[in-house]
Amino acid sequence: MSNFKISVRQFGVHAILVEWPNKVDESILDEILQFIQYLKKNQLSEKEWEFVPAYNSLTLICKDTVLDFDYFKPKIKEWYSLIKKVSHATRYLWRLPVSYDLEFGLDLQEISSQLGLEVNRIIELHSKSIYTVYGIGFLPGFMYLGGVPEALEVPRKSTPRSKVPAGSVGLAGKQTGIYPQDSPGGWNIIGKCPIPMFNVKNENPCFVTVGDQIQFYPISMAEYQLHKIEAEVGIYNIEKIVLNA
Length: 245
Hints:
Domain Carboxyltransferase: 6-208
InterPro entries: CT_C_D, Cyclophilin-like_dom_sf, PxpB
GO molecular function: 5-oxoprolinase (ATP-hydrolyzing) activity
Shape: elongated
Structural class: alpha+beta
CATH architecture of the largest domain: Beta Barrel
Largest sheet: 8 strands, mixed
Keywords: ATP-binding, Hydrolase, Nucleotide-binding
CATH superfamily of the largest domain: Cyclophilin-like
EC number: 3.5.2.9
Number of domains: 2
Distance between the termini: 24 Å
């Protein structure tokens, strides 16, 4: 049996939104991912359905036809009540390099004053933590990473930038993340990652999935330039560790 109460509501003519309690909780995310595996294995074909998890919700999208919500609403609750232990899809811990050089860390000094922490301490706290991917959205490949240490919690900027460079690593509240492309943004920028998070030319454009984990590690400016070139020519090997082997 599942541990949480869910709500099921229509989300347009092709989609159903399943919602768990409105809180950031890794056990909720684990259950969402388990439910996806159950649905794929027993009820809904991946050829006909798309599954979009995020934080405390799962959007089920019927790709080709208008769905009969009155039919599916009780079915989804029934399937959820019958959820069984199924094997999760393979999940990874990805270790990503970040240069926290002040040229890239546009807001490091401001955050240092705001939080009363030395810049080196901010880098230490940010890079030693392990973050969970709770959602991917806003931009293709933009990861919403939960697990920011309380000491690093800082609000979004009051005035967003009109352009945040691709690869910029930001902080906002309890979240951190990487901007996968140039875009406007209001997160506090503390560094830059040389590894692209989204490449439309790849069979799997975003190598990270919801439920994976991320750990950053500091690199020098010279290492950043080297890894950027390696990534551009396709020879950089991203370090990953299987979590559920």
